[in-house]
From TrEMBL:
Pfam families: Amidohydro_1. This is Amidohydrolase/deacetylase family metallohydrolase. InterPro entries: Amidohydro-rel, Deacetylase_Atu3266-like, Metal-dep_hydrolase_composite, Metal_Hydrolase. Residues 265-349 form the Amidohydrolase-related domain. PANTHER family: DIHYDROOROTASE-RELATED, IMIDAZOLONEPROPIONASE AND RELATED AMIDOHYDROLASES. SUPFAM superfamilies: Composite domain of metallo-dependent hydrolases, Metallo-dependent hydrolases.
Length: 405
C-alpha cells in the first residue's frame, strides 16, 4: 500500500505528552494529513480503534552489529530488524558495539542497508565490543579517530566508553579514569555526547566522581539501576549526589541488560521522583530471551511501577531524540516519514523479571499490533490492510514463482 488512512486510534503527541483523537493519512511513505475526523476517498482504511498510535519508538541502547564473530571475546549481538520491529522500534541506537576498526563495515553492511533506522555511539576503543579486550587498554583509545568519525558520519550520535579495567588495581599504565577521560575528550572534539558504562571500583573510581565531575552536562550514564551503583543510602533514600548530578545536567539511561536493572533500586527511586531520562534495553543475544525481551517489556515494567503511558512513551520517543541530537525523530507531524508504532495496553495478570531474577506483579502490558517504517508495514501480526482470502484478487491464487505447464 502506498496510500492509506489510519483511523480511530489515539495519537500520541510527544511534544505535549498527551493523546489526541486524530486520523493519519499516509501517502508515498510520508504523513500527509493528521486531523480529527479527516476522511480520504479511494485509499485503504485501517481501523485502529482502541489502539495507541505513537511515533516510532527509539531504543536508546542496543547492540546490533551481528555476524561479527563468535569468540568469547565478542559480545554476541542481534539482528536489528528481527528484534526491533516487533517492539514498535523504528530507530535503534547501537551503544558502542564498534570502534573505529569495524565501524565502516557496520555502516556499509548494516546501517546503510537496513530498513530499520540505525544510529550509533562509536566506541572509544579501537576494537569496541567486537573485541572486548581492546576496551581494557588505554593504548587502544583512539581519541582523534573516534572524534573524526563522530563528527563526519551523520549516523554517529556520540562516543561510548565501557568495561574498562574492572576488578584490577589501577597503575600508571591503567589510570582509573583513562577510558572516561578519553571518551569525553573525543566527545569535546566532535561536539557530541558521551555514554558511559563504568564500574565504580576502589577508592580511585567512585561513582559520585563520574556523574559530578568527569562527565559533562548532557553526557549519559547508562545502567543507572544496576546493583553496583549506590543511588540509595542506608535508609533507602535517594543519595543527594544523584539529585545534584541531575541538576547539573548529567543524564541517566536505563540500559536494562542481563545484569543492569534491579527493582530494589528502580522502584524506590521512582517513588521518590527520580526517573530515568530514557528507557532502553541494552539488547543483545544473551538477554533477548530474558530478562529484557525487548523495549515493550521494559516499558511495561515502568507502567506497572506507576509511570503513566504518556511518560513511558515520552522516554522512548521525544526524549531520546532530543538527547542524541535528532529532534526530527520521536514525533508525528505532516511531512515527516511515517514511522509509527501501533500499540495496545493489555489488562490482566502479568509478571516481570529484573536482572536479579526477582518478580514484579503487574496488571498492564504493552503489545505491538503494527509497526510502520517510512510508510511500509514492517511488522503486521494482525494482517492490517490485507484482503480477506476469500475475496483476494486473482493474483493471490497463483503462487509467485510457479511455472504452469
Amino acid at each position: 500500500m502506498k496510500d492509506y488512512i489510519l483511523k480511530n486510534g489515539r495519537v500520541y503527541n510527544s511534544q505535549s505528552r498527551c493523546f489526541e483523537e486524530k486520523n493519519i493519512v499516509v501517502s508515498e511513505g510520508k504523513i500527509t494529513a493528521m486531523e480529527a475526523g479527516i476522511e480520504k476517498e479511494g485509499i485503504t482504511e485501517i481501523n485502529l480503534e482502541g489502539m495507541i498510535l505513537s511515533p516510532g519508538l527509539i531504543d536508546m541502547h542496543t547492540h546490533i552489529y551481528p555476524l561479527c564473530g563468535s569468540s568469547e571475546d565478542t559480545l554476541p549481538m542481534i539482528d536489528g530488524e528481527a528484534h526491533m520491529f516487533q517492539n514498535g522500534v523504528t530507530t535503534a541506537v547501537d551503544a558502542g558495539s564498534c570502534g573505529c576498526k569495524d565501524f565502516f563495515d557496520f555502516k556499509d553492511r548494516f546501517i546503510d542497508k537496513s530498513k530499520l533506522r540505525i544510529l550509533a555511539f562509536i566506541n572509544i576503543a579501537y576494537g569496541g565490543m567486537v573485541s572486548l579486550a581492546s576496551e581494557l587498554e588505554p593504548r587502544n583509545f583512539y581519541i582523534e579517530t573516534a572524534a573524526a568519525i563522530a563528527r563526519e558520519i551523520k549516523e554517529v550520535v556520540g562516543v561510548k566508553t565501557a568495561h574498562y579495567h574492572v576488578g584490577k588495581p589501577f597503575d600508571e599504565e591503567h589510570p582509573a579514569w583513562a577510558s572516561v577521560d578519553a571518551a569525553v575528550r573525543a566527545g569535546e572534539l566532535a561536539g557530541k555526547p558521551v555514554m558511559a558504562d563504568v564500574q565504580p571500583y576502589l577508592p580511585g573510581r567512585p561513582y559520585e566522581e563520574l556523574i559530578l565531575r568527569r562527565l559533562r552536562p548532557g553526557d549519559i550514564h547508562t545502567h543507572v539501576y544496576a546493583q553496583q551503583f549506590h543511588i540509595l543510602n542506608e535508609k533507602n533514600e535517594m543519595q543527594e549526589f544523584m539529585l545534584e548530578a541531575r541538576k547539573r545536567g548529567t543524564l541517566f539511561d536505563l540500559g536494562h541488560g542481563a545484569g543492569s536493572f534491579w527493582f530494589r533500586n528502580a522502584i524506590p527511586a521512582y517513588e521518590q521522583g527520580f526517573y530515568p531520562d530514557t528507557l532502553s534495553t541494552d539488547l543483545y543475544l544473551h538477554n533477548v530471551n530474558g530478562p529484557v525481551y525487548g523495549l515493550l517489556n521494559v516499558m511495561s515494567k515502568y507502567l506497572n511501577i506507576g509511570m503513566s503511558p504518556e511518560e513511558v512513551l515520552y522516554r522512548t520517543t521525544a526524549r531520546p531524540a532530543e538527547i542524541i541530537g535528532h529532534p526530527e525523530l520521536g514525533k508525528l507531524e505532516v511531512g515527516m516519514d511515517a514511522d509509527i508504532a501501533v500499540l495496545k495496553i493489555k489488562e490482566g495478570n502479568f509478571g516481570f523479571a529484573d536482572s536479579g531474577n526477582a518478580r514484579l506483579q503487574g496488571r498492564q502490558m504493552l503489545e505491538c499490533m503494527l509497526t510502520i517504517r517510512a510508510g511500509e508495514f514492517v511488522y503486521n501480526p494482525m494482517a492490517y490492510g490485507m484482503p480477506d482470502w476469500k475475496s483476494a484478487p486473482e493474483a493471490y491464487r497463483t503462487a509467485p514463482g510457479v511455472i504452469e505447464l
